[in-house]
Amino acid sequence: MFFVSFWRNWRCISFDSFKLYRGLCVSEMGLQDRAMASLGLCLLWAVLSQSQQPLDPEDQEVFQPQSTLSDMEFTTVSSFRGPGNNDSRGNKELPILLWWTAGLFPHFPGDTERIDCARSSCMVTRLRKVQLHRRTTAIIFYGTDFRAYEAPLPRLPHQTWALFHEESPMNNYVLSHSPGIHFFNYSATFRRESDYPLTLQWLPTLDYLLSPPVFSLQQKNKWRRAGLAPVLYMQSHCDVPSDRDRYVRELMKYIEVDSYGQCLNNKPLPERLEDTSTATGEDAEFMSFVARYKFHLAMENGLCADYMTEKLWRPLHQGCVPVYRGSPSVADWLPSEPSAVLVDDFPSPRELAQYLKALDGDDAEYARFLEYKLPGRVTNIRLLEAMRDREWGVNDMSRPNYLNGFECFVCDRENERLAATRAHRRAPKKNPLPPARMANSSHMGCPLPSPGFGSVVDLPANDSWLQMWPPDYWQSLDQAEGLQSLIQHNESDPGLLWHYIQKLAASRTGGV
């Protein structure tokens, strides 16, 4: 079973770049000891590697590229000068940022581009042959596609790693462990603590949130009297770490729920709406269909701080009340109090159902949940300031998308790091080395998956969720520690990962 789960954990998860451009079994104590030891080693490695001096072109013993790259390939790339940028260097003098996940490269149609950011300029490329080039100072990874056994090795001391990961934690639990997230010097994730936060990526504008309800409360009550359930559930991805179906199945015992997706389905969608693209693309007819419901079960596929998707923002946009389970910090971002029913505020599905029934029968109390749509009634200052201050936009041509924004964030920080290092070389006593940058658990840090309802000890051994997600979580820690060992031993073959994982396992059990 271990080997089956291990190789399943290395599955390739398909990536649809177009989606990004839409807005563009050990004891508990043993595992804790392992994690702390790994953290210490990784911290030591990161500090040592960051203290290494970047390689200047004029150095006598520069690292020579293992490729046929010529400076001419970069010299011929056209340049665009952004406002406020006074970087006068030519292309062949600029640091290079390599997008390791080529399908995420935010420039078309070429493979290489010059970017002129707020304070400095860089060359960016998706050509992996520049991995070992002396001017390649940063490598940018997409978290969903980051695989320990495909990491660019050896990791060079003059290079930093940057992580872009806006997707669910379920896509790669390697990043939720300290050894895994510590590989990266810069981060752009859904967590507000990351270097370039993407927390509100699913909320395009404040106006989207404040648009009038699609249907009045009177119309919704009319549909209720005609037989529409008070609660909507629509999910077609059924096997997820949050185990939401287990909770909803229990909730259905106490309140009527219309479920249209493949998960817990009890009602067919109208034939014209069966194409799932109508849901993902916010088709107008589909949106009107689901907007008839008073309550939407808004259940994320992973439970992680600040991970909030359209499951929360879409019902708020439509004027429905989300019954939400996902980010434990969601209250920090809601437009006002009250505006959503939080599942975790209730000790059981039965008590949640009792509350929803009472709210369904009390028009005045239900209307309080929609008061944020009235002028001046959004009271959450954090939300207002975040929407005002974020530099990237969603479907907004006046702002960069978050891919280009993070790219420029890395470019500016790398130029600052290189300049500070050169200053230190010239006058070590006067100019100390820049402090090491390293992402930490607050940049991701998603917890061990737990059952959607009930206790894990009560689940049968053959429960499919139990067999998949807890092992996935812990085996991801093995991958993170294995890659850490590869890097510390300056290995150049990521295919040795399994060998290092075996060695780690043997050392834990006292084997040879």
From TrEMBL:
Q: Which residues form the Fucosyltransferase C-terminal domain?
A: 231-380
Q: Which residues form a coiled coil?
A: none
Which compartments does it reside in?
Endoplasmic reticulum membrane
GO molecular-function term, one example from the UniProt record: alpha-(1->3)-fucosyltransferase activity
User: Is Endoplasmic reticulum tagged as a keyword?
Assistant: yes
The UniProt keywords, alphabetically, are: Disulfide bond, Endoplasmic reticulum, Glycoprotein, Glycosyltransferase, Membrane, Signal-anchor, Transferase, Transmembrane, Transmembrane helix
Pathways per UniProt: Protein modification; protein glycosylation
GO cellular component: a single term: Golgi membrane
Q: Which EC numbers characterise this protein's activity in its record?
A: 2.4.1.-
Per UniProt, residues of the Fucosyltransferase N-terminal domain are: 95-197
> Is Zinc-finger one of the keywords UniProt gives this record?
no
Catalytic reaction equation(s): L-threonyl-[protein] + GDP-beta-L-fucose = 3-O-(alpha-L-fucosyl)-L-threonyl-[protein] + GDP + H(+); L-seryl-[protein] + GDP-beta-L-fucose = 3-O-(alpha-L-fucosyl)-L-seryl-[protein] + GDP + H(+)
> According to its record, how does it sit in the membrane?
Single-pass type II membrane protein
Which SUPFAM superfamilies would you find in this protein's record? UDP-Glycosyltransferase/glycogen phosphorylase
**What does the function comment of this entry state?**
Protein O-fucosyltransferase that specifically catalyzes O-fucosylation of serine or threonine residues in EMI domains of target proteins. Attaches fucose through an O-glycosidic linkage. O-fucosylation of EMI domain-containing proteins may be required for facilitating protein folding and secretion.
Q: Which family does it belong to?
A: Belongs to the glycosyltransferase 10 family.
List the protein's name. GDP-fucose protein O-fucosyltransferase
Instruction: Identify the species of origin.
Output: Paramormyrops kingsleyae
Lineage, uppermost ranks: Eukaryota, Metazoa, Chordata, Craniata, Vertebrata
